[in-house]
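User: Can you fold this complex?
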Amino acid sequence: MTSKPYVAVAEGVTKVFKNGKLEVQALRGIDLSIEAGDFVALVGPSGSGKTTLLNLLGALDQPTSGEVELVGQRLTKLGKAQRAKLRLGSLGFVFQAYNLVPVLTAAENVEFVLELQGVGKAQRRARALEVLGELGLAELADRRPNELSGGQQQRVAVARAVASRPKLVLADEPTANLDTDNAEQLMQAMETLHDEHGVTFVFSTHDPRVVAHASRVVRLVDGKITSDERREER
Amino acid sequence: MLGSTLSMAWRNLGRNRRRTALALAAIAIAQMSVLLVDGLMHGFVDSTLEALTGPMMGDVQVHHPEWREERAPDLVLEDAAAKVEATRAVDGVESAYARIYAPALAAREVDGFAVMVVGIDVDAERAGGGLLQGLAAEASPAPGRVLVGARLAREQGLSVGDELAIMGAAADGSIANDLLTVSGILSTPVEAIDRRGLIVPLESAQDIFAMPDQAHEITVHGEGGPGDAAALAGRLGALPALDGLEVLPWDELSPELAQFFEIAGAYGYIVMLIVFLAAAAGVINTMLMATFERRREIGMMLSLGTTPGRLVRMIVFEAVILGLLGVLIGSALGALIVVYQGQTGVSFYDPAAEGAAGIAVYGVNFSRDMYPRLVAGDFVPGFVGISVISVLAALWPALAAARLEPVEAMRG
Ligand SMILES: Nc1ncnc2c1ncn2[C@@H]1O[C@H](COP(=O)(O)OP(=O)(O)OP(=O)(O)O)[C@@H](O)[C@H]1O
Ligand SMILES: [Mg+2]
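Assistant: Here's the predicted assembly.
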């Protein structure tokens, strides 16, 4: 068995939210390793801690205890600015909603992250059009988000997430606001990127049809991982 | 980077057009008001100075050093004709003429009344912007014929052809008296002349008051106008012929007037302050609302790894574009209006309200139109002030937004 490099590792991770006197144990000891090339579905009932875990894997939050290591860097050692830099350089994000900057066109939204990374103007334009083209969005390149359907917006968000060539793309319920057809299209887009470019995805979902696309399914219940299965066949 | 940040700021302004338009209007109106006030202020100062230095005061005056203090008839300038000649030869002098001011008692029948006999160089003051500018030759004073101030004529019931006996103190201490015929009525913005003036030719005054080739004052008009008066006074003061005499520009002759202009200017600043505060409220409101509305979007950008600095720049640019655009619009509108007013003139008082005699400012009755104008400096406070206000107004919401935890912000 060849050992693939890990892009993300969680060890004994807990997360406690305090709301005044109320304490919520969102995560209770998570051990999880994401390998390069994984296509992971994170499933579990509402409130089981999926978003909380994705935020930790996305360097958007810090664990209460335990350690998260992202592309070789220990999260607890990083400050706010360093985490931002890590996100910009190594991670891609697809959110459930409010993914795109409303005043930028589809192509400009894709370029936005590249520009933050310091990619030159001509190069980032070319790469944005390339990725949009690959996802069948070439004709929509110059439209603003409000001129796109929900499904198109999410696919543009995926294009943006992968255009910066991240080590890991995190998507928290990316299909939650989409109908079945659009959800299917989005998953196929992600699958193409995974299969052809080896992009590593971790996404959460409630939808069994979306789960069906995953090559690995991690189940969370009550802040704990109850199962972690790999499937060779999809 | 800068280009796209600017472009995002610009596009963000277009998201809520109504709100942006309102803020623009507030700023534009602020700058326009300031320019209108400035324009009127310049027009007012111009026409006041023009009215004051024009017919009566001149730009510079020459006196016996104690004359202004004492006003005694014997504090005279000797060899007046030669001194006037020497003055006229000085660089930048447009016109110069000698005057005599002698208080006297006048009577038509029995009751006497106080008057001021003013002896003037009739030809010079009819030509060169003096007291008699534009007066018809037949109405002009001549030996034995006197021109009477309009208000004095009205109050004493004097009309052309009436005879007046006058009596006063001559410069040599004797009693001066004469019998004069009213040749005309003079309506002048100079209040003292309008109320008490009896204008006679300089030679007549010299005869009546025993002042051979003497005068009390030389009034000088400069080519450079009131603005150049101090320099002109300096050159005149260096003249040997005027050695030992007091040579003063208008702003030292009438310091209260100069001070009045300063106070008027200070009111201008207060207006400016109030108006800019209103504009500031417009910018602050717009930027607070805008950043508040875009909380989720800002959270998303921060999640992607946008630096707080970039976010702050974007929001500040947005405010500065808003502010500068508003000032530009206001400047254009204000300049247009002031240029128009400058062409047509603005009337300071209602001509129908005759008898009210306009507004008296330091002895000059304001009955003339004024012509508003702007100088480059009038535009500066708006541009600088609004730029500073815009940056400050945006900085608070921008810093607050940049400090947000991305996860918190995205939750909305
Ligand atoms: N900021 C917070 N403050 C307090 N409690 C929180 C916070 N975020 C999450 N929680 C709590 O932590 C637990 C896990 O929440 P989380 O959002 O991770 O669940 P989830 O699996 O994503 O749920 P869903 O499927 O509904 O999105 C929940 O009980 C939730 O109420
Ligand atoms: Mg969730």
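The two ends of chain A are 21 Å apart (CA to CA). Residues 74 and 202 of chain A are 19 Å apart (CA to CA).
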